[in-house]
Amino acid sequence: MARTAARDLVEVAPGVLVATARAYTTTSTVLVADDATCVLVDPAVTPADLDGLAAAVAERDLTVLGGVSTHPHWDHVVWSRALGDVPRWATPAACEAARRERAHLVRDADAEAPGHDVALLARLTPHRAGPLPWCTEALLVEHGAHAPGAAVVVVPAARALLAGDLLSDLEVPLLDLADADPVTTYLTALDRVEELVHEHDVRVVVPGHGHRADRAETLRRLAADRAYLGALTGRGEVDDERLADPWLRSEHERQVAAVRAR
Ligand SMILES: [Zn+2]
Fold first, then answer.
1. What is the pLDDT of residues 71-106, one digit of tens each?
2. What residue stretches are annotated with the Metallo-beta-lactamase domain (predicted)?
């Protein structure tokens, strides 16, 4: 069997290694502790991407202790046997949504990135907010915007925050339209993330899709996301350069229709 090439991992902060996939500029983050154990946050996207991630981890002699899914969307809940038989943590609400939506997640994964091990898809273990059971402190902080039970991961020692699908330079805020008040939930989540950035003196933010941000760029994205959400609830046109992408434009139009119909 041909060996899969190891993916490039970029160290964006001490012990925080990021691989970026071609599809949707999706990031997968490897959190490495001093004892060469690691936790994989949102490993993605295609089966080949996962094998390449497994090869990159093996190349560094790292032992995978677990995974984290920041939220229950298909591209954040895939897994491969090559990554090991370990728990994959998510908030209890995210686990419940993944269980409820499992058929949809399988269908979406199959449509967008065929060939995943369906038996492993969305097999998540509930972890209540707070430190992950791992030797370096990493905090799972639930905010519930974008998807049920969605969370960010803060690594205080590295001054890093993994934002899941928040704070992207490529994607406007994408709402969980099943939420009773998705815009307020999202704005509250942005406030919480900003608090975390200050509380932990965060220097690097890694979004689930897009490029990493330093402190100044993080504050710029927070402002851009708040401006987008403010415009969404108004009556006028929404001006945001991220809407140049046709897929985001169509998601945006869906959001406008849903939010303004309330
Ligand atoms: Zn998502």
1. 999 999 999 999 999 999 999 999 999 999 999 999
2. 26-209
